[in-house]
Amino acid sequence: MSHKPAHLLLVDDDPGLLKLLGLRLTSEGYSVVTAESGAEGLRVLNREKVDLVISDLRMDEMDGMQLFAEIQKVQPGMPVIILTAHGSIPDAVAATQQGVFSFLTKPVDKDALYQAIDDALEQSAPATDERWREAIVTRSPLMLRLLEQARLVAQSDVSV
């Protein structure tokens, strides 16, 4: 199975599972960084550009839903997939209503996980066309240069 190159953050308080999942995703062509707590995951997000977060639901101190809420404060729209060994339909419904991209139960089926990752990345990919400029009416060369600079900066993880 071929996947788009993407940088994934895995958050789980089980180091063994974290390592296993990291190896599996790396072998599929993804770049992976791991964190053993929600707080550590937030620190990683502050220093690295990540395309997607995969988090365990039940962790000490900060669970997966609390982590999701914190991520949305600093990076709205960041796709998050929640994994849990204790999944229930009400938990899954609540998570997706709050904006979690996918809610999968452990042991997670690898094909279902890969599909969820690919779907999340596809849905969150920035539009490469110029539709965003249609509403801006200008012919000023200076404004056109500024809009082009804004487009380039918007695609990076640089603070302005």
**What low-confidence regions span 5 or more consecutive residues with pLDDT below 50?**
none
Query: Terminal Cα separation, in Å?
Result: 38 Å
Shape field? elongated
CATH-level-2 architecture of the largest domain: 3-Layer(aba) Sandwich
Based on helices, strands and strand pairing, what is the structural class?
alpha/beta
Strand order of the largest sheet: 2-1-3-4-5
Please report the number of helical segments.
6
Total strands = 5
Strand content: 15-25%
Largest sheet: 5 strands, parallel
CATH fourth-tier homologous superfamily of the largest domain = Response regulator
Tally of discrete structural domains = 2
CATH fold category name of the largest domain: Rossmann fold
Describe it for me?
The protein has 160 residues and is of the alpha/beta class. It folds into two domains: 7-124, Response regulator (Rossmann fold), CATH 3.40.50; 128-160, no CATH class. 46% of the residues lie in helices and 15% in strands. The protein has helices spanning 15-27, 38-47, 64-74, 89-98, 110-124, 141-154, and strands spanning 7-11, 31-35, 52-56, 80-84, 102-105. Strands 2-1-3-4-5 form a five-stranded parallel beta sheet, with helices on both faces. α1 links the parallel β1 and β2 (31-35). α2 runs parallel beside α3. The chain is elongated, with a radius of gyration of 18 Å. The chain starts with 6 loop residues before the first strand and ends in a 6-residue tail after the last helix. The model has no long low-confidence stretch (mean pLDDT 82).
